[in-house]
Structures are given as C-alpha cells and as structure tokens.
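Researcher: Here's the sequence for the chain we discussed earlier.
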Amino acid sequence: MNSVSSTDTKNHLLATIVVMAATILLRPSHGFQQQLGVVTRVAARAGVSPSYSLRIGADSASQLLALQYNTRSFSRLYSSSSDDNASEKARILFLGTPDVAATSLKSIYEQSQRPDSQYEVVGVVTQPPKRRKRRGKEIPSPVGLVAEELGLYTLCPEKARDADFLDELENQVRPDLCITAAYGQYLPKRFLALPKFGTLNIHPSLLPRWRGSSPVQRSLEAGDNPVGVSVLFTVSKMDAGPIVAQETLEIDENEQATTLLPKLFDIGTKTLIDALPKVIKGDITMDTATVQDESLVAEAGMIESSEGQLWPTKMSARECHNRVRGFSMWPGTFLYFQIGDDESKDPVKVKVVETRVSEATADPTDIIEIGPKKGDGLRLVCSDGSVLEMLKVQPATRNVMDAKSFVNGLQGNTVRWLSGLDIVEE
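Model: Thanks. This is the structure I predict for it:
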C-alpha cells in the first residue's frame, strides 16, 4: 500500500478519521459495521489504519470498546509501506492476557525498539475486558492495559475463531510471526496458517511434561524439581509443537506457584527473545525444532475447586505441602477444624496458606497443636505419622494470620482437624 507523501494531506485525513470515529461512538447503533468500514477505507487512503479494540461477536452498541487514534499506532500498523528500514523487520503479533504476559509484552516491545532489532510489534490480541460488578465499568486485561500504554493496535475477540477477527489479522495486521503467552483461547488452523514464521508459545513447564492449562500448579503438586519453561511452535494439538528452546530452574522446596509463575515467564521471555533472530532468519523452523517425545507426556488438567481440600487420612505431609504450594494462586487449600469440645458447633473452614514439612514424625492424632519452638507452625499429623507445619492460615471471614496469632485467639480451646468425609458444603 502506497503512503501519502504530503504530511498536510495525511494530517487532514487523520482529522477526518477522528471525526468519523467520534460519530460512531456517539451513534453506536446506526450502522456500526458500515461506518467502521468507511473509517477504515478513509484511513487506508492515507496509508494508515485506525487503532481500536474491537470485541467481535458482542452487540453493535458495545462492539467498539476503544478507539485509540495516535500516530504511533498508525505508523506501526502500516510501517512497512512507508519506511524502507521498517519493511525489513518482521511484523510480530503478541497474544496474552494476565500480568505475567503483560510483563512479557513489555520486554519484547522494549527489545523491538533497539536500532538493531529485526522485528517490530505491530499488534496485540487479548481477552475482552471484564465488567466490574458494582459500577459496570469494563476493565481491560493486564495485557490490554500495557498495549494501550504503548499505543499498540489491539484486538479483543470473544473467540479467536471469529471470522471478522481473522479477516482483520489477514487483511490489516498481516503478522509474520505470532507470540502467545497465557492468552487463554484455542487458536484455529486458519490463525496458525497466517504468519509465515509460525506462532511461538511460552509454556511454563519442561515439555512434554505438563501439557495443558495448569502446568506450574501440577508440577509443584507433583513435587517436581527442577522445573522449567519451554518455547515451542504452536500446532493444533495443545502444547504438542516442536520445541525451540528450554530452560530449567532449581527451586526451593517451599516455593509456591504465586512466585514461581512470574519467574518462569521472565526466563521464558528472555529465552524467546534470544531465539527470535534465528526464527526470523529461518535457522529455526517447525521442521528443525525438536520434536516432543509422546511417551513422556503428562497432562496438566484444569484444576477443580474441590481439589483444594487436604486429606490427612489419605495424603502424607509432603503431599499436602506440595498441594499448598501448587494451589497457592487458585483455588487455595483448606481443612475443616473443630474448635472446642462442643461438637454441636459448626466446623470452621480454614484456608491453609503456607506450610513446611517437619523432620519429626508422631503418632497419628486429630489434635492440632503449635510446636514448642519460636516460629513453629500448627502441627498436623497425617495418618502415616508425617507432620505438616501450618505456618499461616486464614479462618473463614478472617484475615491471614500466623500460627501463634491463631492459637492466641483460641482462648484455650482445643482444635481438631476433621477428615471432611462427613462435611457437606451448601
């Protein structure tokens, strides 16, 4: 597409686009798609394109989430038509949603701004904004907020398979390479066929171990050490593509998912950035990357909230500890306590926030007591005699507290853990 050489002409066209966009925002129900098409055509004549976040599939009054008119977005989307140097750069589309992905986007974008960079970030895809319950205001995802801050062209499709969204990518964004980091949606074959260099994914496990939606949680639950992160090409089968690079990480036995996940994404992002030049040059391709060994696959299935309950009758202290570590982000882990000798009182649901495994063993008992030393936790003796120390807990409707604070609030009452077999939640 040829860009307009006259700055005055382009500025005039940009002003026209802004006015037309404002009209759409004020009259969202009047031929939204037709009006948006006119805006896009006017922009195309200027060799630019409006940067907007479009929710495909919603009602027409709410499809246009935000129109971001700024010269950075315009020039970035069509930079290959107006800048000979930029035309040599690979066009990267980033897909992601949560905080860890937002950090990855920042790092990749910053790297793309280096004078010797072989690529540029031309667009971002993220999950649609969530609506606040009270005021009804829509809040963009963490990746959406960073994209707005950087002035990046942003799309928020309800589904990645939506035809309008895929048309937009094919006709306007035209990515050479896509990067996904915890995007949260399945990518259809048509999407995967768009970028000539393929789609790279940052996956926080040592594939083929822990394919699926909860790799960090499942690896900690299983007691894996070392853990790691993989950069791989995306194929139709989940997390099954050939591996570009992997990095391992030795972790402390008390490391929790809350702190491990961002570490792995930081390492994965650096690993991906190191690999990008080779991918863009064609030295690393889908055919030359390392094929995964299917015999070593372990599935990291989606976690159910019911999995958060600890079962000292069935689990060792180590197994309980690993589940606390793995489920620290969600859904958390919990036990039921009977406080005092009056069994007619309802049991108390207590969230187990932080634990460690004691070197001591003891005769099985359902009584929970604090250890004798300063800094000791609440001692939970499992059926096999192993001892779990609960360092931080959170009784229902209360704040997180350490073991000593919990005991101080008991007023001398004894505490027993309940197996949960007789507990039925409403």
